[in-house]
Specification:
By secondary structure, the chain is of the alpha/beta class. 42% of the residues lie in helices and 17% in strands. The strands form three sheets. Strands 1, 2, 3, 4, 5, 6, 7, 10, 13 and 14 form a ten-stranded mixed sheet that branches. α9 packs antiparallel against α10.
Length: 368
């Protein structure tokens, strides 16, 4: 069903948890020979870090299935486990006052020096095209960064941006309060009202502030799917990988204003994601034009939801992790700290098994 269709990947945010979970999803796709079918990538926050690592480990080209399994995935694992970018940034921050109000640039520096994420957007391949999602503070819209253009429809667009991949990955991961905005100097670029460079104009502002793309759309869906219009013309099948953490029950503390602000933001993001998920199920998944991979799901839950026959579901349920293990993976904190190797392997396995079960149970004639 998937081997002859152009695939679009929408990968959610969620810090290092999302980064590793998506690696597991990609491992499953590679084992099934599907990476070559990927035509479009849309990433948010932790997923943008994941994609930046993959391109860094493959010389800024899209790896084949064999390359991903043999060399790229092991290289990415080594980089994540050996270099704690969060700790490195916190150690450096007190001695670098230029980063005190520009922590996104410090994160970009750590991505470059610690994780080896180098190169420019123009070094990326034309296919699959990678869309890095941010949120423009000034307009409140989705700011899209691609090799051929970047911008949002209210702010305007600039063609062929010449920016470091590390900077754009950091901008996409610039979670409010913790990291903060990436400050883009607009005067360095020629701007127009459309993505093709027509209707040029001179912007009235010198800078814009790019925040975590998850503030606008934590699933990265809008680049690949439009409500009322369907899938992007570049793709025929949509795979959504959602590694967002659960919204837990907490008590309000009147004296912890920043914590309360993060909580309110989390509630808003959770509701937006729920609305987008319901729409994508009603218009794409029900027609068999996509699958939805959700962190925290077990093989048994996936099989039950799909109605897969026993000969398909029973082996999956037997070989995949328990509900307790899946819940532990889902509750891994949204952070950029280096995980233990055991936690890395747990998250990777959960992403792999979630993709394996979802493809086996839903990408079949009996899947709804």
């Amino acid at each position: 069903m998937l081997t002859n269709r152009k695939i679009g990947l929408a990968l959610s945010g969620g810090g290092i948890r999302a980064c590793i979970f998506h690696l597991g999803v990609l491992r499953c796709l590679a084992e099934q020979g599907l990476l070559s079918r990927v035509a479009s990538l849309s990433s948010v926050s932790g997923a943008s870090l994941c994609m930046a690592l993959i391109f860094a480990a493959s010389g800024n080209h899209w790896p084949s299935d064999a390359e991903f399994l043999a060399s790229v995935l092991p290289a990415v694992k080594r980089r994540i486990l050996s270099r704690d970018i969060q700790a490195a940034a916190l150690i450096r921050l007190p001695f670098c006052p230029q980063y005190w109000f520009d922590k996104a640039k410090l994160l970009a520096k750590m991505l470059e020096t610690k994780w080896g994420i180098r190169g420019n957007l123009q070094d990326l391949p034309d296919r699959p095209y990678w869309e890095i999602n941010c949120t423009t503070f000034e307009t409140g819209k989705s700011f899209r960064i691609r090799k051929d253009y970047m911008g949002d429809y209210r702010l305007g667009y600039t063609k062929c941006p010449n920016l470091p991949i590390s900077d754009m990955a950091a901008a996409s991961a610039g979670f409010p309060v913790l990291i903060g905005p990436y400050k883009l100097d607009m005067t360095r670029y020629a701007w127009s009202h459309d993505t093709r460079g027509r209707e040029p104009f001179v912007p009235t502002r010198r800078r814009c502030s790019l925040w975590d793309g998850g503030v606008y759309d934590n699933l990265g869906l809008e680049a690949l799917y439009k409500i009322g219009r369907g899938l992007d013309n570049e793709i025929q099948f949509l795979i959504v990988s959602n590694a967002s953490g659960p919204l837990a029950m907490v008590e309000r503390d009147s004296f912890r204003l920043l914590t309360n602000l993060r909580r309110l933001l989390g509630i808003a993001l959770d509701q937006v994601a729920a609305l987008r998920t319901r729409d994508i199920f009603a218009s794409v998944m029900e027609r068999g034009d996509g699958i939805y991979i959700q962190i925290g799901n077990t093989a048994e839950a996936i099989a039950q939801a799909s109605g897969a026959p026993l000969d398909i579901s029973a082996p999956l349920i037997h070989q995949c992790m328990t509900e307790a293990e899946a819940q532990r993976a889902m509750r891994y904190p949204t952070t950029l700290r280096t995980p233990t190797e055991a936690d890395f392997d747990l998250l990777l396995r959960h992403g792999y098994e979630s993709a394996l079960c979802t493809i086996a149970c839903f990408a079949r004639p009996y899947g709804r």
